[in-house]
Design a protein that fits this description.
This protein is α/β, with parallel strands linked by helices. It is 39% helix and 18% strand. It folds into 2 domains: 106 residues, Aspartate Aminotransferase, domain 1 (Alpha-Beta Complex), CATH 3.90.1150; 244 residues, Aspartate Aminotransferase, domain 2, CATH 3.40.640.10. A 7-stranded mixed beta sheet has the order 2-10-9-8-5-3-4, with helices on both faces.
């Protein structure tokens, strides 16, 4: 049977080690051993990126990365003052809708989906509107694969003392995160992307002063992270049921991530895969949507050639054992996306490049 490899932006192809953890056993989520497991996961999460462990605490909740982002905004976006949302893709625009759903004051700096963040324009908006106390942005916007310039944007947040709320769903565990330099208040992430865990658990890391400071009106019971924090950091239990086997897998994935060299090593691995795939597609005359230097290591977007529909490409590659991803919105008819996460082995990469070459009529 042909091995199937997922090249979509999560869930990812699991390693044998992580998949085996799913069969570890059946535990009750109200027993002390599971509480200890969640506390261990939370300790490991704040160690994924250097410098975060002393000042940040993690909580884990059941749900996708979107659930974690909404919980972060519901819990930490202010009721007084406003949050400036920067949107240059689907997921930035989704954050604005989340704030609206929770009746949180917000502003929107909307950009074209293929555009970089205009940091100078953001600075002008902050200068003109002193009510803005928080800024929400997507780190890696998987709509296009763009890695937003958080170094410059984060420095602006630090300079203006604006609290950064970061959607790190598709970057946590691979792309560099400098919490102190960016004035990072909180970030949201998920198990099933760069950490190579299983879908079903997500998490939020927040600075200790946000956990202990005055509470905002969350506007939801399940998404109010303070309840998770108060219980998980007291006795390890959670206010609602967490998926036990998915937690086994996340603990194993975090251990594997650390043993393999952490986020820097994972980023180098992804970048190597990206370069290999890019070389094959460029040889076949396929062009990127963005300039190559604008991409994350995690995912790149590629233009469909004239007369080529996504469906035929998807089906041909799936028959060869590879699942790619379509574009979103108006980009749906223009691009396809290939992610570089998960257990992609050297022979998988060889097979993928051969399959791409066959489909586009070039030599591998």
């Amino acid at each position: 049977m042909t091995r199937q490899v997922l090249l979509n932006p999560g869930p990812v192809t699991l390693t044998d080690r992580v998949r085996a953890a799913l069969a570890r056993g059946d535990w009750c989520h109200r027993e002390p051993e599971f509480a200890a497991l969640i506390q261990d996961i939370n300790r490991r999460l704040v160690q994924v990126h250097p410098g975060m462990a002393p000042r940040y605490r993690a909580v884990t909740l059941a749900g996708s990365g979107t659930a974690a982002v909404e919980a972060m905004l519901a819990t930490f976006a202010p009721d007084a003052g406003a949050t400036l949302v920067i949107a240059n893709g689907v997921y930035g625009e989704r954050m604005a809708r989340m704030l609206d759903a929770h009746n949180k004051p917000r502003r929107l700096a909307r950009h074209a989906w293929t555009a970089a963040v205009d940091v100078a324009a953001v600075a002008r908006q902050l200068e003109a509107d002193p009510a803005i106390t928080h800024l929400a942005v997507v780190h890696h916007e998987t709509t296009t694969g763009r890695l937003n310039d958080l170094a410059t944007l984060g420095a602006l947040c630090r300079e203006r003392q604006v609290t950064l709320l970061l959607d790190a769903v598709s970057s946590f565990g691979a792309e560099a995160i400098d919490a102190d330099a960016w004035n990072l208040g909180a970030l949201a992430g998920t198990a099933n992307k760069c950490l190579h865990g299983v879908a079903g658990l997500s998490f939020v890391l927040a600075r200790e002063d946000l956990w202990s400071g005055p509470a905002c009106r969350a506007g939801a019971l399940y998404l109010d992270l303070r309840g998770y924090h108060d219980t998980q950091h007291k006795d390890g239990f959670s206010p609602f049921t967490l998926p036990v086997q998915v937690a086994f897998a996340l603990q194993e994935a975090l251990a594997e991530h650390a043993e393999e060299g952490g986020s820097d090593a994972r980023r180098r691995i992804y970048a190597g895969r990206a370069a290999r795939i890019a070389g094959t597609l460029r040889t076949a005359g396929i062009e990127t949507l963005l300039a190559p230097g604008d991409y994350s290591s995690v995912l790149w977007s590629w233009q469909l050639p004239p007369g080529q529909g996504y469906a035929s490409l998807h089906d041909a590659l799936k028959a060869d054992g590879f699942v790619i991803y379509a574009g979103q919105g108006d980009l749906g008819a223009q691009i396809f996306r290939i992610a570089h996460m998960g257990d992609i082995r050297p022979d998988d990469l060889d097979r993928l490049c051969a399959a791409l070459s066959r489909h586009f009529g070039s030599s591998p």
